[in-house]
Amino acid sequence: MTMKLQTPRGVKDFLPEETRWKLELENKLRQVFGQWAYEEVVTPTFELYDTLNLGDGTSDEMYRFLGRNGELLALRSEITTQIVRMVATRFQADPKPLRLSYHANVFRHDDVQVGFQREFYQAGVELIGSDTPAADGEAIALAIRSIQAVGVQDFRVDIGQVQYFHGLMSECQCPQISDQVRQALLHQDYVGLKQIIQQADLDRETKNLLLKLPSLRGGDEVLKKAYAATKNKVAQAAVDNIRDIYRLLEAHGVADAVQIDFGMVKSLEYYTGMVMEGYTPNLGFSLGGGGRYNSLSARFGTNIPAVGFALGLERLMLVLERQGLKPAPAKQSYLVLPKNWVKALAYASKQRANGYQVEVDVQGLSFNEGLRYAQAKQIAWIATVGDDEPQIVAVCAENGE
What we know:
By secondary structure, this protein is an alpha+beta fold. The chain folds into two domains: 16-322, BirA Bifunctional Protein, domain 2 (2-Layer Sandwich); 334-394, Anticodon-binding domain (Rossmann fold). Helix content is 38%, strand content 20%. The protein has helices at residues 16-35, 49-52, 80-90, 133-149, 162-169, 175-186, 190-199, 204-212, 221-228, 233-252, 313-322, 341-353, 367-376; strands spanning 39-40, 46-48, 64-66, 72-75, 98-107, 119-128, 156-161, 217-218, 258-261, 274-279, 288-292, 306-312, 334-338, 358-360, 381-385, 391-394. The strands form three sheets. Strands 1-5-6-12-11-10-7-9-8 form a nine-stranded mixed sheet, with helices on both faces. Strands 14-13-15-16 form a four-stranded mixed sheet, sandwiched between helices. Helix 12 (341-353) links the parallel strand 13 and strand 14.
């Protein structure tokens, strides 16, 4: 029987050009994170399943397996839970707030489609130990600056506040109905939303407001509208919180890239306040997202407020490619054809020390063979190095000259 030499569904190889581009984007994000004083950490690829399961919303999507000692393990399906575990066990005595960043692959057994893989790469930050609008504003502003840094054009970051929704649903006596409303909002199923709300045990005013939630979006003019639409104190406090955050975003100089959306909910239930998602037109999924998650640390025996976000690397690459911003393939600098190995290797070393990329022929190619090889690989120059001075020939891969 012939073995099928293919990758499992939902994973992919990164070929040299893609790998080079991915690393370039990661390095740009590292630079921005570092400029904002976020220090990089690395978490394990797999952990005890019970530890990862302390997070919300991904347990059914985890890849689980048994260790040799019989313990149930799982591949990480998101990074935030791991960092909260890390802070609870390793950073208790450190001054707060902590500013931590990461670049990692994560694994989820999800439906495979454009923008959704079962192994994918994220870059993100967590600001841990501060429960202020200033911390939320910093996270949003950094997300915007990060997307700008990699070159994405024509994008926006939507921000919401989950307590606005929770406040409106606080009078609902059926948790199942509340979850159905949240799921309908999450999947933008407005027909289903209307049907669910009509059956809910809520007063007419609240039902009407829930139906209007998807339209409570826009600039800061929506703040007054959302506040006046309800008498619920929790929901009104959520509006006040977004107002404070928005003013800080204006001070950061990023408010033009922000849209307020009081109908925003999240699939992960550990979010407790501000939430955000990054979008660009004509893309059926977000560039990344995050928010405030003050209650997650309690599951690890601590009480530390936190906010953060993650960006999807492959999604950023896809958007940039669609916007015509994929970088041109990097050209190698030199192909050295050795006629005198001592001098050829010395020449190659000198050029590398000068910052050039150099490939030394190990096949014994003739000049014409080397020229065809250089054209195929878009190498800029051929250097034939013998006893005399090196002979340098420029290569034009497009027309073969």
